[in-house]
Fold these 2 entries.
Entry 1:
Amino acid sequence: MQQVFNGLVSGSFYALLALGLAVIFGMLGVVNFAHGAFYMLGAFGAYILLTEAGVNFWLALVLVPLALGLFGVILERLLIRRLADLDPLYNFLLTFGLTLILQDLLKREYGVQSQPYPPPISATLDLGLFEYPAYQVFVLGCSIVVCLAVWFVLSRTRVGMIVRAATERPELTRAFGIDVGRWVTPVFGFGVALAGLAGVLAAPMRAVNPLMGADLIITVFAVVVIGGLGSTFGSVLAGFLIGVVGSLGNLYVPALSQTLVFILMAAVLLWRPAGLFGREEALT
Amino acid sequence: MLRIDRLSAWYGEAQALREVSLAVEPGEVVTLVGRNGAGKTTLLRCVMGLHKQLTGTVEFEGAALPALPVHRRARLGLGWVQDDRGIFASLSVEENLLLPPVVGPDPWSLKRVYEAFPRLAERRRFPGTKLSGGEQQMLAMARVLRMGSRLLLCDEPTEGLSPLLVQQIGDILREIKTQGVTVLLIEQNVHFAVTVADRHYLLAEGRVVESLDNAQVRAREHELLEYLGI
Ligand SMILES: Nc1ncnc2c1ncn2[C@@H]1O[C@H](COP(=O)(O)OP(=O)(O)OP(=O)(O)O)[C@@H](O)[C@H]1O
Ligand SMILES: [Mg+2]
């Protein structure tokens, strides 16, 4: 049971990151390889704010995603937009190159060893069957609330309607008078902000180091593929699912724990090539 | 209202339109007829801005279109009814209706849409593509009426519909004509076309080969139907 809970907490990070990747992929058709680096920047943002300016965790939880969102907006306007009409390979090169640059910049300053970040809540909660660190429960709650809020916006608001339409058929959406290009920038910024939020949440729990995103993002890509490319709902659900599967795998088949996710991904793809919640036509 | 002058269009090396010139006046319903592959869809896509490999001029109420992005054309008053109906699967029926902004002076209200198409009212919460083909076609028409578009570009709205539904599309086209809406309509069924339209252009191999009025079409109905392969 405790392992399931551990899994849900890991899944909280997968879900937040996969959700950002999915909305960005849906709206821009860009596979954002720099997503792991943005997550890492989120964690370092919190760390730097604390050590250099004494800004506490709770403030960082708001400030860092905002700053990263702004960074995403600038990045989209300045660079990503210019590649829109070119081969997707250019986007791969850009986002991958950006990852290396960001990682190396932080490596220069902080080296590769992990930086400690004091947990903002040190209490434990009695969950009936077992005791659990309150901070982990907070992370899970935070992730669930954010995912639900995003779901609400996507399914119930006009902005969500435009994002869904533009994700499905961008050219047709334009034919109905909607300037899809104008919505691309905020959506990208928002996806980056989500990665930043996940990073801040990770700082007190995970090792803050320049490679933390690179380790995680491979799994997150598998999560997005399992959930179904372009399906935000699928990405979130697969995020929590993979968290739990990974955690249980760790317990019962520790030898396979690293590869389990990819075995699962292969199995899902054989069974449903478009992923659990993907639409078949998204493949063509 | 719409003036097309020596419009040529290509798909890569293959030329789909060859110096097409035509005009549609305000309040007119004009059809484009022609065999499969004649270039009818390509012509409408050029007007909407969905096809970009072209030369020549397209003017809508004096504004040169080729310089304008697609969404600006829609906001000027062009209403798009795509040949595959263009219904969004990830939007409900009602969201499909509400997605586009209102762009014209005389838009249909949601209430009027639902009165004219009770089926859409019943299914307003369904995903758009869960409707039958005929219902999707109604939705595609209703959507541009709600926008209040002044020039409708309709690509075979009656294709594959039952005679009853074709009848209903005909009623709507006649109704909006009295409202002053202008329509450029692709329609293979010339028998139906003469009941809704004022004039007709016959396209063949990317060219306008004939401009016909209703009387001429009626007189040559059999010949035309045979030529079009219906
Ligand atoms: N996407 C495309 N790529 C290459 N060629 C195309 C494409 N679409 C159409 N064509 C070609 O352009 C020509 C005109 O096609 P278009 O679709 O405009 O014809 P149409 O009159 O609408 O025919 P239909 O009655 O079948 O709808 C055809 O020869 C067709 O093969
Ligand atoms: Mg066609």
Entry 2:
Amino acid sequence: MVKYKKQIRIALRNCGFINPENVDEYIVREGYAALGNALTNMTPEEVIDVIKNSGLRGRGGGGFPTGLKWELTRKVDADQKYVVCNADEGDPGAFMDRSILEGDPHTVLEAMAINGYCTGASKGLIYIRAEYPLAIKRLKIAIDQAREYGLLGEDIFGTNFSFDVELRYGAGAFVCGEETALIHSMEGLRGEPTVKPPFPSESGYKGMPTNVNNVETYANIPVILLKGADWFSSIGTEKSKGTKVFALAGKVNNVGLIEVPMGTTLREVIFDIGGGIKDGKKFKAVQTGGPSGGCLTENHLDISIDYDNLIASGSMMGSGGMIVMDEDDCMVSMAKFYLDFTVEESCGKCSPCRIGNKRLYEMLDTITQGKGTLEDLSKLRNLANVVKDTSLCGLGQTSPNPVLSTMDNFLDEYMAHVKDGKCPSGQCKALMSYIINADACVGCTLCARVCPVDAISGEKKMAHLIDDDACIKCGACMDKCKFGAIFIQ
Amino acid sequence: MAKVKSLSDLNKMREELQSKMNLREKGEHPDSIVQIKVSMATCGIASGAKEIMDYMINELDNRAIDAVITQTGCMGYCYAEPTIEVTLPDNKPIVFGYVDTKKAQEIIEVYIQTGKLVDGIIPVNYETVNNE
Amino acid sequence: MDLVKLTIDNTPVVVEQGTTVLEAARSVGVDIPTLCYMKLDDLEFENKPGGCRVCVVEVEGRRNLAPSCKTACDEGMVVNTHSVRAINARRTVMELILSDHPFECLVCAKSGKCDLQSLAQDLGIREIHYQGEKSHYKGDESPAIIREMDKCIMCRRCETACNDVQTVGTLSAIYRGFESVVAPAFEMDLDHTNCTFCGQCVAVCPTGALIERDYTWQVMDAIVNPKKRVIVQTAPAVRAALGEEFGLEPGTLVTGKMVTALRKIGFDHVFDTDFAADLTIMEEGTELLGRLNKFLEGDKDVKLPMLTSCCPAWVNFFEHHFPEMKDIPSTAKSPQQMFGAIAKTYFANQLKVKREDLVVVSVMPCLAKKYEASREEFSANGDADVNISITTRELAQMIKNANLKFTDLPNDDFDRPMGESSGAGVIFGTTGGVIEAAVRTAYELHTDKELARVDFKELRGFEGIRSATIDFDGLPINIGIAHGLGNARTLLNDIKEGKSEFHAIEIMACPGGCIGGGGQPYHHGDVTVLKRRQKAIYQEDAGKSIRKSHENPYIQKLYTEFLGEPCGEKSHELLHTHYFDKKKKIEI
Ligand SMILES: Cc1cc2nc3c(=O)[nH]c(=O)nc-3n(C[C@H](O)[C@H](O)[C@H](O)COP(=O)(O)O)c2cc1C
Ligand code: SF4
Ligand code: SF4
Ligand code: SF4
Ligand code: FES
Ligand code: FES
């Protein structure tokens, strides 16, 4: 049982409380009051000041100060500007943004309109992956209802401010979450990043100033305006204010969506909120920031979560994926899993990411096969550093993080794979051996009969033997043996 | 549908909606209305929240229990989906997890009809800003 | 313009705001290597995706290395282009690129001219530390272009040429990550797409991924076949570029050496496409005057402006993209095809050989000519008017195969009758040349007066779209010129919208005209190469005793002996063609 509440719901404040398909319920919970008040009683500069003073930073991964971004977009002179909501959410296992859009779509619309008021944009675009049908449906309903009430459209709240929102669908490429790639994708071009600067706030959609923010970033806006910058900045740490939503997954008891104040420790998240490690196993590591982040260990459990601490520890905040690993997880395989993802998701524009990640993956694969050498380890590190240092966009600049952080924190595991040909956690199939304990074996021949590749030999009533080279590690023999004579090494 | 033409329009609208809801909750049958929310985000639906919602509607109807059932977003307990929140008159909301039809039946027969707690309660482990 | 101060490798540099680190470095003699980057000044070609990452440098205060080709100079920037970190990164990136490249250099068509190969040498790569799977793609062979995409390094230069410069839009990057490649949609073969075979993608590809289809062995086969008479025609732009393949300065005219080489290779007759260019002017010029006269007489249906039709890539372009305007270009065939048609009739008769036994070979700066030669309408009973078309580069290869020391060869003259040409025929090789040649003849035919000066400098130059008004003795004729298909598109759209004021427009698909053709020696991004070739073309024109097509005595003879009148019945049969609507063909 939890003794005290570690979570505060700001971004998720309405999720699970209101019927997302009914704008009235949103209005009852003070929905659209922030927009109304901003339009009626505040200048755009005043609104931007509140956001700046609140200390809100982008929740899409980079942590760029939101108020500053709005101000930059505001300051560029242009006939048309755009407000974009990044709902691509490509990080595997993450679903914070989806939950917000499904549970509280109006808050995003309201915040985008506020942003439009501040930056001077009359058009909002939500870039959402087509794999989110329910979120799309609820957004569409929300947009219709907001238009019906005149909360989107012409002359909102009787002022001369007009703003409308449209949906744009992504095919679900991870790289399309990168803001320049996202903009190209919305323009009907190949979803490929371009070198920044220019930033979207100067030249974005159709070459016009474009303010791109993440779903969760937007979800914070209306509350900040209602409750004030001081209230918001009283939550969190010195440089990271407010809360952060995480999708807690992996080997914890209570997987799910959580929202904690910045500054909460990883230990509190994993053990108090997450209810500790499943099946009483031992905690080994936690990956934050998805494929762009790094893994943190036992030693990091007491650091408090904020943008800067996570980076200082070799990982990053990312969008909010948090995957917990226990003693059964092999860290080389973990790095390989993420690299496999990056290889699939790289756009292919720049050579370090296109080819370098492939080579990183291949090297990790070699190591998990037990065929790696010590030299491979130093090559691996050099290549990881070069890919990070030379890639064009955030994808390639962060994709080696899982490799580098596991090498930093679990070098002994890499060494075990290459020097001893062993996988300490027993996850790498190619590195494990099924062995028959001669003392326990009664020679019943059952194992030899189930082995699909005839790798087991032995006379009746005599101890049997597994030929490791022939064995395909299917485990059938171990399942069959009634005397528990077969074990894995 | 009335358009919101000013901030005071919105405030008025909120008050009206609020009192309508209060009326609905406490109005005609102040003691008997039961409120049920079913977490219907992608994760909930994937674990069968739709069937539970349909089942509850039918079952409550059959038993002539006066209840308002609505869908809502993710409550955050993805490990325990489907989850539903039940608010009995004059009681605090209670969240039940791992609700299958058997559990739903138990919730209706035992908790809703007799007020006795059943297994499967999920402790609410967060605060929400609007509740402060 | 604001100036910014920075230091590059400890050298202070002052540049205009907006200058890239790469340009700034080059201005102080720091030669940062590049691979994907390519810029052709004045030709609207700029490819800088920032993708190869070979040009990375260390910028103080930045977390990551910066691509110098894509990074603008900032005030106070401190750049180090050869720190250990930068060099290691550059070499590692290069090793990565090489690790995904087939090691076929020894037998690769691009060997010796390959930017990837020379960069690997410049960087001194001796070992590739990172090895692994290599990418494989579907091959593609058209009559003109071969795509061997396993050799593609994703520099995207071809994409820029095809989309931004030519606005054809055949090539674009498809697939993701390690699988990504530049290809037509659905990896279709080029001949099933809207490709114009302009060859500009080939002209800029740094590797052997895009190359011309090589027909040199077919030529040799014909030459050694005792039953065949093999004749050759050489396009005007070839003589201004061929020398580069043998180490001569760009812009060196090698007409005489080329003729000698062709004879030594074994061609029975060595002719000049310039002769056919003069013929084209007779036909096209007459057609233009015909349309103009009708227009002056008040005929509302007459199609003006008239567009030139001697560039086959341009013909492909309007057949695919503007089929509704296919009656606007002149119906005159290109010089290559006029040559073929006359050779297989008039000249074959003179020789008393059957047309099938006369093999017509053309040496062209162009890849679209390979495709054009294979068009069905340019053949009789299955025998093509031009049997084989090879490029300047292929001719150089044949010269090398024949063990000729090209630079030491003596000069020689073309054979008669189809080797005589006027200066007007020569300038077909550059942008503006066709229309200048046409003006020289049309003026005199229209006014019956002799031109005081034959050099129309107002039609010359390098800008993508040019225009001039020429006074035809009181009748002002408005002339437009476009080179590069993107510029052509602009003029076509004007015509479509009824905004065009021109009477005649010259269009060349390749930037610079044929001197910049897809079959020419590689320019490696140096525009001065093209400019020097252009100068050489005008120099050859100026040196000719005959400057106007209608004064070419062999052309006059051809009309009296064989053709009759320009645009007459025989001309129509042999020298004019019709165009097709190819838009539907490519719908999928
Ligand atoms: C490879 C890559 C993927 C990204 N994916 C997302 C995403 O799915 N959602 C998102 O909001 N931001 C994503 N970002 C970050 C965006 O580029 C951008 O910084 C963000 O949308 C800005 O919003 P914020 O300031 O509100 O965080 C991604 C960045 C990179 C490099
Ligand atoms: S880093 Fe990867 S995803 Fe980003 S531009 Fe390069 S290839 Fe594309
Ligand atoms: S030949 Fe010309 S049209 Fe064809 S693909 Fe290349 S650049 Fe494009
Ligand atoms: S085909 Fe050639 S020009 Fe095109 S991207 Fe590949 S290497 Fe570059
Ligand atoms: S030359 Fe600069 S990135 Fe390729
Ligand atoms: S030598 Fe063939 S691609 Fe470079």
